[in-house]
Amino acid sequence: MVKNWLEMSSDSLSDFAARLGHWDAGDGPLYGRLAAALRRLLENGELRTGASLPPERLLAGALAVSRNTISAAYGELRRDGWVDSRRGSSTTVNSAGYSPVGAHVANGLFATLIRDNPDVIDLTIAVPQAAPIVTEVLSNPAAHIDDPTTLTAGHGYQPRGNPALRESIAAILTGNGLGTTPDELLITTGAQQGISLVARALLRSGDVVGIEEVSYPGAIDAVCNTGSRIVPLPLADLGVDVEALTAVVRRERPRLLYLVPTFHNPTGTALDGVPRKRLARLIAETETTTIDDVTLADLDFDQPAPPPLAALEPEAPVITIGSLSKVFWGGLRIGWVRARPAVISHLAGLKAASDLGGNSPSQTSAVAMLEHYEETRSWRKRQLGESLDALTTALKTRLPEWQWEAPLGGPHLWIRLPETDAAGFTQLALRSGIALVAGPLLAATTGVANDRIRIPYYLPGPELVTAVSCLETAWRSRGRSLDLRN
Hints:
By secondary structure, the chain is α/β, with parallel strands linked by helices. The protein has helices at 10-19, 30-44, 56-63, 67-79, 132-139, 163-175, 190-202, 217-224, 242-252, 273-286, 309-312, 341-355, 360-370, 373-398, 422-431, 461-476, and strands at residues 83-85, 91-93, 121-122, 185-188, 208-212, 229-233, 256-259, 290-293, 318-323, 335-338, 403-404, 412-416, 434-435, 437-438, 452-456.
């Protein structure tokens, strides 16, 4: 943790503010909510013994609150024995209050999953409402499942996943150009578990991992939890900069690459044509194990998604990971890993050691849902297209100074806020009723995307229009007198 905040760049302060997450949501005085958020960082081990908290004046500016609010929050931590302060010196973490849990905890973005505020429009987690077929199958499984007794057949432990589900997913992948057999698939509890299993299987402390400079935060967390060192990969117009990536691979010899080359999270770009072929060839030639996250590949707009990397170089060490969450429903918690059978066997052993197997009824139901895969995917893309049109129309009308590139696919709009610190703006937005993700929460390193926010457009158009109206209020309030509540 930073020892001397006055000598550090504003990037470090923005990163600290981002780690607090949506701290000012909830009830009670503002200083109390801030103290609670700081206490969570202390309890989780993100603020170590002897570390200095940011000076009151600097943190007040980063969080868009008064200095009195910061002073009162620090005072509460002092009374509880978490920190020490001396006149003319910094506020430091007290060893008596420190309770270590680990060197790394989940990105602040995921803290929003365990805090529910019905008064806030949540634009932090890009997950859809359930598709109609999900409701139909779950409300009446017997009408959709040929033999409902399969829901409770045997002991129910299936570490590799439901055989019929693996067959269904293998057929879809094969139809998309990636020949796949069921023994090349592992069903996981969402794509997140798949990424985490691969990280646990392959990585050890000190290993080098290449990740796009902004990316899916769950992957960043999974890598950090192994003690590996992340090397950020620059982005170009179509996605990862293949020339820069080549230099990194030659120089650093990473143990693993994690890439989202198809409708990248959060930019919505798609690496295609010659650059994509060059990337696949590089992976094959250097034998660099690579995760190709295709979770968003089903959500193409004007042009079909390019083929998975493993389809371009079948012998390359590519592990393809996907999910049913973005088309059907996140609550299903069904993802999959596609790799060589030997790799799948190893990952299945790790999975069995952690949870014995996935939810059998959910997987059996998913087989029935996948019979409606194409129609559901078409429905979801229409829904997303309508919501994106409503969102961008409202932004152009109310916030014309905001800047973005039209996404080629996926559910995210990656917006640049001109001459504005995104982490600070998200604090103002939350007080206007909108929870947002600031760019630093998606960054693989500090000092990146400080002027960016991500807005998903899974919500219906009218709700997004309402959200933009609230965001305009927050945007126009910048520079006004700070909230002086304690």
